[in-house]
Amino acid sequence: MAVSRAISFVIFLWVAFLVNAASPLDFRAFGLVPSDPWGLPGIILMPFLHGSASHLFYNSISLLVMLSILYGCISNPDRVSVACLRIILISGVSLWILGRSTTADGLTMVHIGASGLAYGLVSFAFCCSIWTRNLSLFLASLFVLAYTGLSLFGGLLPNDSHISWDGHIAGAFAGVIAASIDHKDLTCSAHPEFPSESPKS
Fold first, then answer.
1. CA 146 to CA 163: how far, in whole Å?
2. Is 111 helix (H, G, I), strand (E, B) or coil?
3. Residue 152 needs a FRET pair 20 to 30 A away by CA distance; which of 17, 116, 120, 171 works?
4. What is the domain range of residue 33?
5. What whole-number distance in Å separates Cα of residue 62 and Cα of residue 141?
């Protein structure tokens, strides 16, 4: 069930990509442009728009892994869906207010892609594992961090003005905020917890 939910979401992203590729209109123009009223729809649409198949493929792997982990470790899956929506909204609003509206060479910066959501899910899972004392979720989060390694942290650095590194930061920030809101309502599956401190005599 956990994997099927994750696969369903990723399939939806690929359907949106193929529809855009087959359409005479380029829906990527509806991506998020910071501080521009015309870029407001991008707050919602940004995760569903991708620049290329390789861009979407990379995000698909990250989302499949993180969503499968979260849906598998958390017993009330609706809370995971709510967390995704929170991450999309919080990161989108933050990026629209504080993000770059132009690239280093003066072009309009249209932020697209689900990378921000992926970063948000990683930080959400890590923070929830700490606050709910769920060892399995904590170890799964560490595995993702170790597996992605420098590529994950490199995406937070302003090395390329054409990459939405500020969108990645906004996503990671949104994941922490979403975890602080939702962790009390999460019901984790019956997995081992962190050992509690023994009472002092």
1. 22
2. strand
3. 17
4. 2-185
5. 12
Average pLDDT, the chain: 83
pTM of the model: 0.85
Task: Report how many domains make up the chain.
Answer: 1
Instruction: Provide the β-strand partners of residue 32.
Output: 111
Give CA–CA dist 8/155, Å, rounded.
26
Please check the confidence at residue 13 and state whether its pLDDT lies above 90. yes
Q: How confident is the model at residue 161 (pLDDT cuts 50, 70, 90)?
A: low
Phi, psi torsion values for 31, nearest 5 degrees: -70, 180
Cα 120-46-88 angle, rounded to 5 deg: 35
CATH code of 115's domain = 1.20.1540.10
Task: Calculate ∠ Cα 122-86-115, nearest 5°.
Answer: 45
